Amino acid sequence: MVIARTLHELRELRQKMNGTVGFVPTMGALHEGHLSLIKRAKMENEYVIVSTFVNPTQFLPGEDLDAYPRKEKADLEICRLAGVDGVFVPTEQVMYGEDESYLCAPRIRSYTLEGIKRPGHFDGVLTVVMKLFNLVKPTKAYFGKKDAQQVMMISQMVKDFFLDVEIVPCDTVREKSGLALSSRNAYLSAEEKERALALSKSLHHAIKLIKNGERDTDVIESEMLKILNDVDVEYVAIKDRLLNEVPSITVGDTVILVAARVGSTRLIDNMWI
Ligand code: AMP
Hints:
This protein is an alpha/beta fold. The protein has nine helices and nine strands. The strands form two sheets. Strands 1-4-3-2-5-6 form a six-stranded parallel beta sheet, sandwiched between helices.
């Protein structure tokens, strides 16, 4: 497995790959969720490249950029065991210069949901993903549905800029308890982890209501909020797959999303109906 730290090293690695390339961009601190993306990329491509870069431009002032878990040694070992061909581990200086071009995410759909508490977050996400795509030149790129708005914004960017890459949204990997795996779960105490289960429980409850015939989004949202009464809810939302507000559920075209703070940790989760 090649570890590329510079643009030169990455380009050299990429030039040697004659065949399809699956790409899994991450911020490191790899867990089973990331691993599921890597495994799928392995299955569907001749080569796999993973990047681990804690991208500063997608953090807002006051967010957890400095505290974000960094586990380079373990990440490299996980990638090696998974049969990854190359890992790109750039520094901030490799990825960014000064007074640079910068992408603007859609002004409406990137300023709802996550964008309300994190305005500008998706500008940073799209900028770094565009840079990574231009360097890695992947055939397919793998993203988790857990970050539903992110995968939607990236798919939109690929469409808007006519990029030649296929975006593959992958299912959320959860603990047995239902908690969606996240690098940020490392911040949770045992008691907070227990309370954090309210997120997945509220989503499961919504699914149960839908299975029983409920279609009214207001009813479903208020039922979910009852389960979320022990965490600090930022939003509960029911949208179509393009993030438009919908008055009622359409099976096959709905996403139910929740974001909440548990102690000082901000968690998100969702289910695609
Ligand atoms: P991150 O390192 O948090 O930026 O995540 C890198 C990629 O892994 C993103 O596409 C995430 O959506 C995805 N991911 C994170 N957690 C999970 C999970 N529990 N299941 C599946 N994919 C995930």
